[in-house]
Amino acid sequence: MIRKILISVAGRGLCEEMFNMLAEIPAIQQASVTVLHVVPPQVTAEAMSAKLEEGGKILADAVKSLKVDPSRITPRLKQGDPKNIVTQVADEEETDLIIMGSRGLTRLEAILENSVSQYVFQLSSRPMLLVKDDVYVKQIRRIMVAMDKSDAAQNSFELALSLVRDMKNVQLYLARVIPEAKPDQVMSNAEADPVLAEAAAKAKRLGVSYRCVLSGGKPGPGICELAEDKNIDLLILGSPDRRPSMAKSLVDLDRLLGNSLSDYVRVKANCPVLLSRTTT
User: Fold this and answer.
1) CATH of the domain at 221
2) Fewest CB atoms less than 10 Å from the CB: which of 1, 104, 165, 248?
3) What's the structural domain count of the chain?
4) Which of 66, 34, 38 has its CA nearest to residue 54?
């Protein structure tokens, strides 16, 4: 259940557009919303004063653009390192979903350019919805969830069901990419696949309109290709946190270096990506 949403805004408007599309989903409509803008450290007091004034305007414009009851919105203007502040505020407010923009930087580019979304992605254990600068935000009518045998995939499937079960005119795509199969192999009887069959049965019991799609090859490229082929509006993917409890404050190197499946899809998918989180 998504009851608390944190939107990190930077003045580009994409995250606000994404939230407004989400706000049409019944399961989201009663959520409280924190709108956060972070002003990074400045060299002089004068520069900080100017940035705070600019940040206040960005925050005010973002709040005005949201299609939600103003009484459910909490605007917050903070100073500090954005990647640390976003994570801190998300934890303080026990956020169920973080919405952030992303430039779609790959691997070491994110480190070299100090990408905020990349660091929040690998430091936070909370679900994140990432909206790339080059992605067109659309009304949500086709949602795809990436399925496999993992707990992370099951968690993302349950999240998808919680979103779509009360929606009208929405199709849920249950997608699986089998690494052992050939990349160009498209399997016609997708619903016979054991993983998809179990998920399909549950979706059917809940009255959710669904389709099963099955392909082969590398999971990352395969998921992105299926999302593009089916013209998906929102892709939901499980993203397990493999760090032990004592290392939660440290970076996950697989994610930081772009070696994880979720990092590949986050960068390459042509639609917004919602990363559900599980611990292992």
Assistant:
1) 3.40.50.620
2) 1
3) 2
4) 38
